[in-house]
Prior knowledge:
The protein is of the alpha+beta class and 763 residues long. Helix content is 18%, strand content 31%. The chain contains 12 helices and 48 strands. The strands form 9 sheets. Strands 6, 7, 8, 9, 10, 11, 12, 14, 17 and 18 form a 10-stranded antiparallel sheet that branches. A 9-stranded antiparallel sheet has the order 1-2-3-4-5-19-16-15-13. The chain is globular.
Amino acid sequence: MCAAAIWGNPIKRTSNGLKIEIGNNSVELQCFSPSIVRVLKYPIGKAPIKHSLSVIREPDNQRFNIREESNMVILSTSNLIVTVNEITNQVTFEDTQKRVLLKEKPFSTSFTVVNDAGNKTYRVKQAFQLDRDEAIYGLGQHQNGEMNQRNQHLYLRQSNTEICIPLVHSIKGYALFWDNYSATDFIDNAESMTFDSAVGDMSDYYFVYGGNADKVIAGLRYLTGEAPMYPLWTFGFWQSRERYTSQEELVNIVRKYRSLQIPLDGIIQDWKYWGEDFKDWNSMEFHNPKYPDPKKMMEEVHGLNAHAIISVWPSFGPSTQPYAELRKLNKLMTLETFPQDNGVREYDPYDPLARDIYWKYMNMNLFNIGIDGWWLDSTEPDHSPVKEEDFDFHTYLGSFRKVRNAFPLMTVGGVYDHQRQVTSDKRVFILTRSAFAGQQRYAANSWSGDLVSDWTVLQNQIPAALNFSLTGIPYWNSDIGGFFSNNNFPNGVKDPAFQELYVRWMQFAAFTGMMRSHGTHTSREIFNFGERGYWAFDAQEKSINLRYHLLPYIYSTAWKITSDGGSLMRALWMDFPNDKRVANLSDEFLFGKSILVAPVISPVKERLIYLPKGSSWVDFWTGEKIPGGNTFSRKVPIDIIPLYVKVGSIIPMGPSVQYSTEKTWDDLIIRVYPGANGEFTLYEDEGDNYNYEKGKYTTIRMSWNDYKRELTIGTRKGSYKGMLKDRSFRIVLVDNKEGLGMDNENCRLNLHYIGNELKAQLK
């Protein structure tokens, strides 16, 4: 480490950046990669010690240069130029062409002394200056219906339907992660974009540059952890209800789906399997007499080729064993939580010993009897009524005020880490109601909370999902039909108006991270809507079957998420950043790289569609080819969700099945959408273990040369136990006659494939 005087201020070059004192503050820059720089500011004195809960990467020994110009200290990497103004204490980020990406507002770093549960610390505030027309996204999941988060004032504190992540993703090709876990005011107006956090020992943020959205998200995952693969069966259809009330009822629901030949992969057991008394809340054990043999229940579910996950909360009733053990060790929090007035208390997930105890009972009573995954409910956590003194509680990592928003990250992470220690033969799957930055590394699939059944609420789920995904967490879903139906639809599934909303919500859900029916007041199993031949039944069956046909496409996209930092639900501007009309478009999205989804979000017979310029598009149902840059009206009969496939796409279509692994993919339909060159990589593995981490998987790259009208199926790479060595690919060149909609039989050419490269001319 060397020190020099630059314009009167001492500067120290560190192994990963620099440190300089400006006025009353110390400023540090730390290089995590040529495209990722951390900025730390704190009052002069001993540097605060902080171990990030979100960031798992350490700053590397990167190549960088430091120079001085006038009143500027400039750190440059191969991808970034970061300037610290010694007079204004302003940090500016530029690309290598000296285009300003982001800059702090001059003199905008502030530290206001506060007393946090007896500890002297600060209220921390930092403001930034954005371009006037710069669109920003992210900040988690919010129900305001906004896609672009400019001119918003959001109070970032976790709650049921609000997921709060202090991370913005700019259309200019960068992200800023404000690494603070306390309640934070996010305010954007004409003057500045500001993060104002209740508690912090420092101003601490990461600037992640990528140039485009995919590289930014890859950078966020590099910084906070990659997203592991889910089991294949999690991508099928899931049935849930608040709640199944007996072992017999739960198993019979699966049997009913099988008898009706409606595809199903999973069923979910909600609360009160532990008993009806709230004093026994969340005992993590089947004490309810209506579940006399839960191990047998799981054997029967598995015998029906289905899976089950179960509701587990972060709170415990006073009569439970986990409560007693946690209380003895002083590992329970004091805040009021649901169900109130019963002595129920949250555990301290920030404490490693508390996380050990939490998992001990999950493992002993649930995982050991065959439960396949976890529905970690209320991980925000539920906190009502909120009293300011609640935040004075001293968790393992400091006051609850200081670490409030990281609660879901810690509790979900504890379950993931412990299950991985138990076995590598079964992949972790977690469905959870809240999230924080980095949670993708814990196999967490977040849902949007207890929503009301309403068309506007459905509409708001699209921008909520897309902004959530843009924080780097790729898997999201919602309760099909909305959780609370009784106010708007007191007759539930018997009401044709609710049936229409439910069908449209299900069509949307088929293109999310988890296709899952759930809610209260009215039972939503497909057979409660009527019988085959009735529109509400038939439209649901069509959506479910479409989801299963798309499993090879979805699972291969999941591999792109794990291996390359990809995204499943994609805001249109991610792929069409030069089309200004999509910057604020909040009712369409891409599912993977190829399929544009335009959900029907109101009770209409026609829907306006905009297709981005930069590509032509093919109507999935009719084969009609439509130039990009056009807005038009499309008729939307009840069984149709508008879908458009980008020309040049290659879409593998799976067989008709009753569950995801019923048939091997030895006879896939490969749809080619001509009009541009394209490629797709088919990914396969063993489906439900972590052998893929050891390289036990295969990829087959397919490419389409539009000029030559030639499809190349490349040499298979990799291997795994049970892989297909001999298979058929049935090739369809999509036009207005072939490869339409649910047609999964007709093909133009049948190719026998044994792992060697094949070329096929398609005229």
